[in-house]
Write a structure and sequence with these properties.
Length: 678
Amino acid sequence: MGDKPHNRGRWMAAITVGMALLLVAPLVQADPPPRESVDTLAHEVRVLEETYLVPATLESRFRLETRFNEAKVAYILEDYQRAAIMFVAVIDTANPERFDSYREALYLLGDSLYGMRNFRAARTYFRRVVDKGAGPFYQESIVKLLELAGDIGDYGGVDDLYDRLDALENVSAAIHYTRGKTLYQEGRMRSARPWFQRAAVDEEYTFVAQYFEGVTMAGAGELAEAEEIFDALSRRPPQSAVDREVVELSLVALGRLAYEREEYENAIDHYLQLPRTSTHFSRALYELTWALVAKGNYRSAIRNLDILLISEPDPRFVPEAKSLMADLSMRLGEYDDARRWFGDVVETFTPVRNELQDFIHEHQELDEFFVGLVHDELRGLRPDFLPEKVTEWVDDEELVEASRQLITDGMMTQEDIDEVYAAIDELEMAIEMGSSIEAFPNLSQGWTQGIELEARLVDVQDRFLDWELRQVRPFLGTTDRQRLEGIEERLDALRRQESSAPRTQEELEQRDQRIAEQFRVLRRDIDEVAFAIEGLEETLGGIAEYVRRESDRLTPQEQEYVAEVRQQLHGEIRSLEDERQRLSRQLDRTRRAFGARDEELIRQRGLRREIQQLQAERAELVEMQSGRLTGAERARAREVAESRRRIPQITERLDAFFNAMDQIVEERMNEVQVTLDA
């Protein structure tokens, strides 16, 4: 007990030293952030606004003009599908009539669809231009509507277009020509002639319009007038390649008219005027041969056919020419030559016939087979399934070409529909998901930079307040100390939650990479399932082929049993495929939920708001006690406080940036929804 006073003295000394250390601690602790750090943050927020918000705001203000110009670029580049989608977005916005280029957008949308061979849809938009009455693109739209009538063989409504044209004072030569051609295609020959005559006044249409005028006269039975027109054309010096072809066609027409009148010498003279370089030379030479036959000049006809056969004619002329050579040889009594020519024709076509018969026997479902071949051609695969000479006969046949075009149009239309539905699904997911900003990469990048700035603002404000609180802590009373302890306890909990989220662009990119890798693994698993399903389908196809080939060896009961099993397996495979597609869509939907503005990052922003509110309470305690500082400490604290007080203003400006970006994203998503509805 005797040493207690001594111990008491030691404790008192320790307390005294501790108090001294506490009082001098602010002098040895880390300094607050420099004033320039606040200036830097303010500058970076301003740069953020100028880089991302200002251009986005201007783009929103002039959104229609921007989208229209982008669509026109796609149209000029003949990317008609992309152009059509963007033109739809222009004309289906709210109050599109206020847009100065609305009529042009309608016309170019129709022409984009026309370029895609979506004729009936194109007609809808050309009609909308026409229904608006005279004005820009009015006559151009009428021309397109008349051309479309001929393309699809549907002339309903053309008389209304003619009435509209009759009401106009100034009509272009293009319209006169197209009107005449449409009437000609309808079979209204006499009605077509005046419009070709009007179009011929324009130098651009002089040759072609006069040629069609002659064709209409011939079609109407007025052969003398037709001959006069063709004769005048054949004597005119051509000004272009198109004019030159018209002159050549006029010579062929004159030959045919002379042949019809049995003026064979005149017919031969006209045919011989065609140059060997003409695309119509083979046809003229073949028709000339018949004029020689009609004259009874068989020997000359044979020599002419010899010339035809060595001049690389259209393959379709070759068998006709050889058959005619054989017939002429018989008329001349040259039976060995006739036998040789007939044998040549038989030798040419017998293998073709045999191979075609074998082909038909091997492919019972010919319609499905040929649709598949067209599909291969669309993918750039040249099918090697017919003898080469058969391909020569059928490739240029009008019926085959029309059939191929019909199937191609149908398949491309279905592919377009499938692509549109896929795009709609993808866009709807983008609209529904919280991270819809990812649909706009530039806005997403601005948002990401804003997140990093926001985190830095919180950190800098923390450092200022930490320094200030160290200065005033000795002056806090018990109540204020307890209040501060409660605030800091809550701050620590919030900071732990907030620090788990990405706070810099680098951390955000790393997070995206980790998420993307996880989804790649899941996507690979789903793709493996798809591959397995394809294998099952091929197996079923093999079973079907086996049953078809071995049908003679299987009893009806066995065939029925196999058919039932195949049907059951097919249903199960279909169910597996449906489930795979559902999982695939769900995976895409879930992936869309992650991005610069997803739920997790929004939650982290909410945590920072709570941190800033608690920082405001800490600042309140500082302000209450800062007046008790003296001398240099007080002056320094005043400087720090001035810098710290600027941070809420910068934060408000950054909040305004985020709110404006939200509004822009919402506006653009609404525009996307309008496009989807359209």
